[in-house]
Amino acid sequence: MGYDTTPHPSQYPHIPQLPAEPCGKIRINNKIYTIQKILFVTKGLVGCGTVCYLVSLDKQEYIIKDHWVQGDQDKVMNEIKMLEAMHGVPGVPKLVDYWMVERSDGKIDRTKEYRHPDVADAVSILGTYCTHVCLIMESCARPLTEFRTLREFVKALRDIVIIQCTAVLECNVLHRNCSLYNAMIVDELDDSKWLLIDWEFTVFISENDEYSIGGTGTIPFMSRRLLAQVADLQVQATKQQSRKSSSNTPALPISHVSQSYADDLKSLCYVFIYICIKYSSPHVSSKEARIVNQFHPYFADLIPLAKEWCTLLKDNMEIQVTFDSVLDMLEHHLATLPEDLSVFSSTKENLKKFAVGLDNLVKHSKHIAEWESSIRTESPISMQSANLKQKRAEAEDKSG
Fold first, then answer.
1. How many CB atoms are closer than 10 A to CB 158?
2. Residue 220: DSSP 8-state
3. DSSP state of 219
4. Cα–Cα distance, 99 to 247 (Å, whole number)
5. pLDDT of res. 255
6. Which residue, 91, 90, 67, is CA-closest to 80?
7. For residue 237, what pLDDT is reported?
8. Are strands 183-187 and 192-196 parallel, antiparallel or unpaired?
9. Cα(192)–Cα(159) distance, integer angstroms
10. Considering 49, 191, 285, 288, which has the largest number of Cβ atoms within 10 A of its Cβ?
């Protein structure tokens, strides 16, 4: 086709300050999308290699999630199935299309295709290959860290709880990975709404709340209960591996962890505290983590909320916190924050000023056109042409 299926991020630097100008093309199935901007790039050598693009097609904007999924066909299709199951749920991205990326030879792009034949079927790496997948979604959003006011920040937290609650109670779905980069804000003219993204490791809730350890969460934001379980499993795996080295007994696979929506609520609390410590204002990261000084002064008004939230979750391992208790707490503190009228009113005023300016520009352009027309009709050449026509007409009358 002449287009790079997955453009390399280094070709199009991720610079948020630059305007969203076209910077490349990407093919999904048989459609070619224009890349407007790179929104997110996974850092590090280990992970899903996720790159998120803001793209456009036929004057419509979309988000493309270009990533690699480890595991069999069921795991590859998990996020797609979950998004389809929650279609229409407010705050969940709308899945428009997806593609298991194909190579030029027609094969699906999997890492096992690049392995040497001698090790491709080795038992030690069985099932560890990744499949290249692209998802196309709506709506376009900005990260939670780009909130404009404290009130918008707390409203975002409240609405993420509502999204989680709806997923659990209405769809029987557990997100399992509430982290800093999975909460987004969608701009609207009079207000903002919120998205909870990355449903790759979500599950349908089981009766015993036990799930595969894969996709348990993002470590900085995982609950203490989950971290303790993962640590125990790692110790067991290490012991099994040491036994394997001294005998031919195969190591048992790491199995399951106990996880519930209460762990997701705890993760959201950690996201809140992380932003209040790590950031000094909307979209501005502090040069150092203010662990000693705790919250940055910008977030001083949210310290009472932090204290109450931590108290609420203190006994979460023994008594599971409820969605209602977290929502009531957020609503209470949200009521103490000033309205965001200045943000949205300023946006409306700017739009009005732009409309007035545009109207004046049109009127000015008409005025210039009329003035140029009058200049042309009154120019010496135009006057000479008119005199010549008059003299010709008079001569014809005399000769007639």
1. 17
2. G
3. G
4. 44
5. 77
6. 67
7. 76
8. antiparallel
9. 11
10. 49
Q: Is 25 helix (H, G, I), strand (E, B) or coil?
A: strand
Residue 19's pLDDT is 47
Q: Characterize 67-88 residue by residue with b for buried, 16 or more Cβ atoms within 10 angstroms of its Cβ, and e for exposed.
A: bbbebeeebbbbbbebbebbee
> Do strands 51-57 and 24-28 pair parallel, antiparallel, or not at all (unpaired)?
unpaired
Distance, in Å, from the CA atom of 146 to the CA atom of 163, rounded to the nearest integer, reads 20
Residue 387, SS3 per DSSP: helix
| pLDDT of res. 14 | 44
pLDDT at 285: 74
Tokens at residue 64, please? Answer: 């493309």
The residues of the chain scoring below 70 in pLDDT are 1-22, 120, 123-124, 189, 241-254, 286-293, 317, 341-400
pLDDT for residue 292 = 42
Please, are residues 197 and 184 in contact by the beta-carbon 8 Å criterion? yes
In this structure, what are the phi and psi dihedrals at residue 376, rounded to the nearest 5 degrees?
-65, -40
Q: Which long-range contacts (CB under 8 A, 24 or more apart) does 308-311 make?
A: 308/333, 309/269, 309/272, 310/269
Residue 87, pLDDT score? 93
Query: How far is residue 38's CA from residue 304's CA, in Å, rounded to a whole number?
Result: 37
Residue 51: count other Cβ atoms within 10 Å of its Cβ: 22
Q: Give every CB contact of residue 94 below 8 A, 6+ residues apart in sequence.
A: 83, 87, 137, 138, 139
CA–CA dist 121, 162 (Å, integer): 45
pLDDT at 249: 44
Cα distances from 44 to residues 7, 134, 147, 255, in angstroms, run: 18, 20, 26, 26
What's the length of the chain? 400
User: Could you report the per-residue pLDDT of 32-80, keeping only the tens digit for each?
Assistant: 999 998 888 887 777 788 999 999 999 899 999 999 998 888 999 999 9
Alpha helices in the chain (DSSP H): 73-76, 78-85, 150-171, 224-246, 261-278, 303-313, 323-334, 341-378, 380-399
Angle at 189 between CA 187 and CA 194, to 5 degrees: 30
